[in-house]
Amino acid sequence: MRGGRGGRWAALVWPALLLLCLIPGVLPALIDPLGLGEVGTPERPLWQLTLTHLGLVVLASVVVLALGLPLAVAVTRPGRDALRQLSETLVGLGQTVPTFAVLALAVPALGFGWAPTLLGLIVYGLVPVVSNAVVGLQGVSPGALDAARGMGMSARQRLWRVELPLARPVILAGVRTSTVYNVGTATVGAALGAGGLGEPIINGLSQQNTALVLSGAVLAALLALSLDALMALSEPRP
Amino acid sequence: MIELHHLEKRFGDSFAVQDLNLTFPDGELTALLGPSGCGKTTTLRMINRLIEPSGGQVRLNGQDTRALKPEALRRGIGYVIQQVGLFPHLNVAQNVATVPDLLGRDRRATAARVDELLDLVGLDPDTFRHKRPGELSGGQAQRVGVARALAADPPVLLMDEPFGALDPLARDRLQDAFRDIQRRLRKTVVMVTHDIDEALRLGDRVALMNAGRLEQFGTPDDLIHRPVSDFVRQFLGEDAALRQLAGQPVSRFMAALDGASPLPPVAVEDTLNARSALAVLLREGTDRLTVTRGGQAVGTVGWADLRTSGPERP
Amino acid sequence: MSDPAGKEVGAERLPAPSAAGRSGARGDVQAVLALAALPMLAGAWLPWVLLRPNRLAPGEYLRLPPVWVATLLVLALLPLAAARWRSALTWVPATLALLLAVWLLGTRTGAALVGQAEFARASAASGAWLTLLGAGVAVYGARLCGGPRVAGWAWLPGLAALLLTGTLADWSVLVEGRSEGPRWVQELAQHLRLVGTALGLALLIGAPLAVWASGRERVAGAVLGAANAVQTIPSLALLGLLIAPLSALANAFPALREAGVSGIGVAPALSAMTLYALLPVLRNGVVALRSVPAGAVDAARGMGMTASQRFWRVQLPLALPVWLSGVRQAAVLLVGVAAVAALIGAGGLGTYIFKGLQSAATDLILLGAVPAALLAVAVDAALRGLETLLARRLGRAA
């Protein structure tokens, strides 16, 4: 669905714009003339907040992949329909429950800071990865599997040589969705004290400083668009 | 009567159809035959103005079709396509009733008409009336498609590869059923096909098109035995005569018993197709066969009979 | 006619469980019930109630009396045992476990508060949460075990009865909710208003746009690309980005300011939410309209339907089920975005989440987060039901 003809350009343009905006002084120079307030000098420079943000998202994605893929493989083995249904139901529930509610519910368990945010990112990030991986593995044509069995492949060989390669595009699309949405979720995480690019937005809102809000929002948007475009490169072109 | 006068269709610089002059006789089935891309479907779709001609005109019963609103024109012409195009959200009866509905006909009369049509196309109304298109086989769906096209009793029927998507068995059955229907209703039918057998089997006349032009128009015999060009001969193929034989029972070719000469020793049933009779002649190394009906000799057939072009048309 | 119907590949359903109920459930169903037993077993041992002198102060953890620990341990294992030997009856212990967990939460919080000061709060601790989770999964698993269909919903009247009789009245979240009272109802109404308005606007803009774009290859690509980019942008960032132009507008035109347009509040929230909901509405609209079988549209044209007859009689009915699933996605998404919109003063259930986060009051967080989650689930279920109904009426799988 996403990407398209402009995909390759987007993978150049968004990261370039992001890097440009991260050069100290560039973003304030762009925003201050709008007369909405002063970006000023936050306690932590914007590039540091961006790195924190990116770090949270990447760490969450790694954990999500490490948990989600084996889970999806486990529940799609034959004779485990009930487990697959359970995981699909839970994933569907995860898709439905608001992100912010998931994050907020982690606070009572883990306190404030980056920990509840990371937990929220992992829980929420698991949703597209597991659901896509299940769909992808389920979608492998029975003909291909039958042929593989006919050639004498063991169950493990079928998984590694047939099922995973065939399901790869769908799985990658899930990882991409998961990562991009998590950039957004991590923004909200600033409300739990996780740092990141949500911090200037929330501070700006409470201080009535639209310039500060704008600096965080622009960077968060650029980060999401950059990651989306970069990860689109790994998907096969239609 | 449908007449095409200097009909043409241009797409950009190229002609899909060029200077086409053709008269489709009333009450006959004309097969528009040709290789893909020859313009036959474009021609068909220009008749009910699904495609607007770039030049020339189409006359329906002497009237230029451009004088009519396209929707009104189409409601008076039955239309059957290869993809069938049944509306999946309506049941069979509702599908068949579409055009009468559009024309604002009386509901009760239409309901009776639907049953009559389902009967005509060989589907039991009680079984099929309330089925959804998704529950039908390909052959059943196309039967409903034919019933739907006939619903408003249009004098003209346009068919675009109507049996093209069916498996050979279903296609054979539906072709037979349609030939019977046509024999009773005598509609003016224009049927696009790329299947030579279908054209020879169903067509009263065949219009063979090539590269947007009419190559030859005539009876199947004309095309087989009196081709006007190398293209016609090549397109029909060396075995065109054989193909035609395959579609006819041997009884059409047999000579009556004269009572004097002895009956040939090898006999075949009169329902056997003429092509198989020819094969029997070859296999047995004989000149003539006895044709029997229910064990009774009713005639004989030989090489010369099968070679003559003249089995009478149905 | 002989058409081998090769449909329903890959959509295999579970085989119908045996009606006799004497035989055991399948192995994978037993695995689900084993997964359900684990958190219940752990939950019985862990503390159930956190008692604090007031809503913010640290408190002490209370465990269940041994009788109830033993009962819970038995009830945790019973569904698993039932599934093995009398699978049609699995729903009985599973439903009992769920109702008992809720009842215990109510009675234990009530017991903890006896003799405490007015501001003391008793909230659920890890044991209660884990037990509830496990019991929920057990109920889910029991539905795969056979037995009467309605048995899968047997917990619902029981739970309703427990709630209506005030069993949970001493649970801290409900105490918090009572003290908020009418204000909470207002915030819930505001939440629904925000979602409803944004969804309505998105439909008003998105539906005609989808119809217009679906017939035009390049327009469709461009419109979907733009909507995709909008959805990629984090919702909080989108709210932030909209504040600047709207406050600039309000500054430039005082009339607009009087009409309620300003940098914070409902206007930017609604704008962002509408933009957000536009993508699912548009995308599914375009996809749905394009996947209407070409043969049906061609046949409709050939039969003499006008363009508007084709749209209303053929294209729209065939596109509706898929389109509606886009509307459902949009609605669910909006319930979540509306929670974040509280940050810019738009109100809604998010107000409680932010208040709770600012004052580190867990109960306030739950008062916002739990209803928001339930609301999303309810909206999803309601629209899903409508989809199935439509798909059945329109004779096509959604």
UniProtKB/TrEMBL annotation, chain A:
It is found in: Cell membrane; Membrane. GO terms for cellular component: plasma membrane. Residues 50-231 form the ABC transmembrane type-1 domain. The chain crosses the membrane at residues 52-75, 96-115, 121-145, 166-192, 212-233. It is a multi-pass membrane protein. PROSITE patterns: ABC_TM1 (PS50928). Keywords: Membrane, Transmembrane, Transmembrane helix, Transport. GO terms for biological process: transmembrane transport. Belongs to the binding-protein-dependent transport system permease family. PANTHER family: GLYCINE BETAINE/L-PROLINE TRANSPORT SYSTEM PERMEASE PROTEIN PROW. This is ABC transporter.
TrEMBL record, chain B:
InterPro entries: AAA+_ATPase, ABC_transporter-like_ATP-bd, ABC_transporter-like_CS, P-loop_NTPase. GO terms for biological process: quaternary ammonium group transport. Transmembrane segments: none annotated. Keywords: ATP-binding, Nucleotide-binding, Transport. Residues 2-236 form the ABC transporter domain. It holds the Pfam family ABC_tran. The keyword rRNA-binding does not apply. One of its GO terms (molecular function) is ATP hydrolysis activity. Gene3D superfamilies: P-loop containing nucleotide triphosphate hydrolases. Belongs to the ABC transporter superfamily. This is Amino acid ABC transporter ATP-binding protein. It comes from Deinococcus indicus.
